[in-house]
Amino acid sequence: MTYAIAEAAHRTGLSIDTLRYYERIELVDPPARDSGGRRAYSDEDLAWLGFLTRLRTTGMPIKLMREYARLRHQGIASAGQRKRILERHREDVRARIEELRSCLGALDYKIDNYERVIGSDHIQEASA
């Protein structure tokens, strides 16, 4: 099955401009063209775009995504290099998750504190 650029954008959650940008910076191969010369994205294209979106969501820099995409074209010969990129990035993601957990703990503490303060204000108001 193939998808026009608008449908590909809708299905991936990316904008049309982002799809064109990813093509321009060689994160994605130029998609096939239909008889009218319009981009025709395949299910495989959408799967790759989904993976790129996950990499971006995890904070992988575009430069590293481009390196991964370049290596992908080399097939199995670059599997070890691609694995190492993902392993290093996984460590970065894990560190970020721990950082966010710490931040969440600070937020929880402050919210709990406000709940105690607000709760004691309500008790004082009721007894007055």
Automatic annotation (TrEMBL):
Question: Is DNA-binding found in the keyword set?
Answer: yes
**Which SUPFAM superfamilies does UniProt cross-reference here?**
Putative DNA-binding domain
Enumerate the InterPro entries for this protein: DNA-bd_dom_put_sf, MerR-type_HTH_dom, MerR_fam
The protein's UniProt keywords, in alphabetical order, are: DNA-binding
Q: Name one Pfam family in it.
A: MerR_1
Which parts of the sequence belong to the HTH merR-type domain? Answer: 2-71
Q: Would you say which domain of life the source belongs to? A: Bacteria
The GO terms this record gives for MF are:
DNA binding; DNA-binding transcription factor activity
- Give a yes or no for keyword DNA-binding in this entry: yes
Descriptive protein name:
DNA-binding transcriptional MerR regulator
Species in which this protein is naturally found: Actinokineospora cianjurensis
